[in-house]
Amino acid sequence: MNVRRSITMLAVVVVLLIGIYLPIILGGFSPRLGLDLQGGLSVTLQAVGDASSEQMSKAADIVRNRVNALGLTEPVVAPQGNNRILVQIPGESDQDRVLSIIGSTAQLQFREVTEIVYASDEKYDQTQLTDINPSDTEAYQALKDQSITLPFTPDSGEEIKIVMGPTRLTGDIIAGAEAAVDTEKSGFEIKFTLTSEAAPQFGALTTELNGKQLAIVLDYEVESFPNVNEPITGGEGVISGSFTREEARDLALVLRMGALPIEFRPDPLIENVSATLGRDSLRQGLLAGIIGLILVLFYMLFMYRGLGLITCLSLSVFGLFMYGIVTLLGHYISWSLTLPGIAGIVVSIGISADSSVVLYERLKEEVRQGKTLRSSVDRGFKSAWRTMVTANATAFITAFILWWLSTGPVKGFAFTLGIATIIDLFTMYFFTHSMASLLSRLKAYNKPRFVGVGREIERSEA
Fold first, then answer.
1. Residue 85: pLDDT above 80?
2. pLDDT above 90: residue 397
3. Cys-Cys crosslink for 306: which of 141, 161, 215, 450, Cβ 3.0 to 4.6 Å?
4. 383 part of a folded domain
5. Is 242 a member of any domain?
6. How many domains does the chain have?
7. To 10 degrees, the CA torsion angle through 272, 275, 276, 278?
């Protein structure tokens, strides 16, 4: 590798590090810690009425998906007994928001509006609101097929009563949902898309109700009741209701993940959990990583002499990339670093050192044959690169399978291990190879003793 290319590849590394650390420094970001290291919220959801094991399992999966959709926060979502679900979320302190996301049944209904009763109407007081009692499971479920009357408070502040017919369609028709800006009301709305099977049904319903109003009811609260001015056959719709950005985003999330199969009531005691492992465990984990790193560096210096200095620099670059990426992931997608995640990073030190060993052993073989280090770098790296790619690909596939199949904190170990394999290959190709190529041009690095094979060559010559 010529000097110009080596410098170019090192410049790529520098530019990427600047791009990673510039927002970290300007924003004052730091890694987001998990429940075991910084604490969070813990809440128990109690099923209302009887629930089958299939319903509890499905409900736990939906709650887990809702929390995961907020970011890779590594939540603990575990059924307890026959009718309870334990949910622990690291780094969260907004209890109301957590309950609105994980506890909302998100049973969406589309109903025809048969009458709107205003406060000024004579029959306003005589129009009785429907009694909504989730604890009466049988009556609650029966409301789906009955006409109901619910209150609604528009922007004017004067409450009205909406009389609606039975449910015509439910939230099962929704394939996707996302928050969007409501240009008419200067707020936010939810745009939803329908499943391919439900699009014709929704088109037929809006054709039937052309000129009338269609109420959108979520967990028996009226979100909006727009006029149907023309049939909606494009497989898309909008839920408007003067939402804030966060409300629209959270509502879109629960609709996208699906409705809970049963009603849940959160335990009134919501715990602010302190760090379950504590700062001492964090310090011990970091201390173990530092000791391991120092031992690896001493070993590399002892075995490979001058080449070991390149390993010191390579591991430093590897560590900078790892810390920067973990920090940015914590800020932008709310990924939390837990103790298993730290274990994955510590293990990754060995992965990076192994890659250096593969390269240096190949270089030493070339030097033993009487070749200079300068002439051996490119040929040795080409041969070692295939081995490094194979080894790292195996580690990455293993980490990916573990991340895909596991739940909870185990994902953190697999996630950091998978990222480490990618960073290791990048560092070896762009940094270690380039540094070895540049330093091999120095006379000191072309002495067999300086790369750890001096005694072997002396004995062979003797």
1. yes
2. yes
3. 450
4. yes
5. yes
6. 3
7. -160
Q: pLDDT: is 446 or 66 the higher one?
A: 66
CB contact at 8 A, 344 and 87: no
Domain end, chosen from 84, 101, 118, is at 101
Query: Do residues 282 and 403 share a domain?
Result: yes
Mean per-residue pLDDT of the chain: 80
327 CB-near residues (< 8 Å, 6+ apart) = 24, 29, 30, 31
User: Which residues have C-beta within 8 Å of that of residue 41, sequence separation ≥ 6?
Assistant: 88, 89, 92, 93, 95, 98, 270, 271, 272, 273
Q: Is residue 444 in some structural domain?
A: yes
Pairwise CA distance, residues 453 & 369, whole Å: 11
Shared domain check, 136 and 25: no
Q: What is the pLDDT of residue 381?
A: 83
Q: What is the pTM of this model?
A: 0.58
Expressed as residue numbers, the domain containing 146 is: 104-246
Average pLDDT over residues 76-80: 78
Q: In terms of domains, do 321 and 360 share one?
A: yes
Same domain? For 235 and 308 the reply is no
Q: What is the CATH number of the domain that holds 190?
A: 3.30.1360.200
**pLDDT tens per residue, range 380-392:** 788 888 888 998 8
CA 245 to chain centre: 20
* 284 shares its domain with 242: no
Query: For residue 267, is it within any domain?
Result: no
